[in-house]
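User: Here's a protein and a ligand (NAP). What would the complex look like?
Assistant: Let me lay out the input and then the predicted complex.
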Amino acid sequence: MKSTEVKAFGAKTNTADLEQLQIDRRETLADDVEIDILYCGVCHSDIHTVRNDWGGSQYPVVPGHEIIGRVISIGKNVSKFKEGQLVGVGCMVDSCQHCQSCKDGLEQYCENGMVGTYNGKDEHLGGHTFGGYSEKIVVDQKFVLNVPENLDTKGVAPLLCAGITTWSPLRNWNVKEGDKVGVIGLGGLGHMGIKFAHALGAKVVMITTSPGKSEDAKRLGADEVLISKDEEQMAEHAGSFDFLLNTVPVKHDINPYIGLLKRDATMVLVGAIEPLEFHGGGLIMGRKSVAGSLIGGIKETQEMLDFCGEHDIVSDIEMIDMQNINEAYDRVTSNDVKYRFVIDMQSLKN
Ligand code: NAP
Ligand code: ZN
């Protein structure tokens, strides 16, 4: 199959810095959309994958799954998109399309395994897929999203992962007006969680380890801030939450958070992918649940983007050049980002 070389940034080992590389992009096939990448968000998952925190990373890793760009060319079967259109690509670029999950519009749970935007199996060129830290990408139209033109384009990029990953559980667990919702961890995902829960009419409590983020949390839409390290404050909120969204990226003690849930309420984990311990009694005494959630399907991602267009919601970002990515990674891991880094891909093209 024909392909073209493009510039990208990636890591050659799990301890290496990211550096400039050349990668191949396939020719635009009948169902494909070729996209000139304008911006790409920096997700904590990019760092986990580069560092091989979850195992199974394949190198070089070219991360990036919060992609915004403009259509350069389309294949002959593409009718949904046209040249010049503003589009997005999130965490997936393919799935089997025939299992029950795919039929239900939940491609992220594809029973035959969805193809990740990076570190997925590349069925076209062989090897593994390369993400959005690059000049261009070619994606099947089914996994391309339409981006509302009225939004600030730079702040839209993080919606493709941080946005949908928080939107999907809030919708699936039917968070509604008047519910008391706690968002645990004010980072990239957490700040979108606050914005969405607030927009859905919930009473939002930011649950954070960082007292210094209190003012920001309120500006972003939190009604209250709860410092999780303060046992007295935690006791005041015990048994009071209808829903908790836990975005903590590392192994941590979830028992204190379970204590915050009301009877029949659920805490959804989206961050920590590792063995966590909880006390059975904490769930049994109150019929509580701990659940998990992975990004969101294509249909609900489009719904989320349209909702953002209507409600003027974007991410709060700090723009960086591609060449500053290693410093940005250090800042994310040391909890120093407000609240998402976005790469200006022009810096790679110059
Ligand atoms: P992030 O920007 O680094 O934010 C994580 C936040 O968690 C931090 O800002 C911090 O907030 C809090 N935190 C950090 N270490 C903590 C600790 N030891 N104990 C308690 N809180 C801690 O990360 P992100 O990009 O939002 O991603 C969050 C996690 O979700 C990552 O693991 C990522 O891989 C995962 N993720 C999952 C999905 C999915 O589909 N399930 C999708 C995308 C990302 P405070 O300072 O407020 O405490
Ligand atoms: Zn992500």
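Summary: The radius of gyration is 20 Å.
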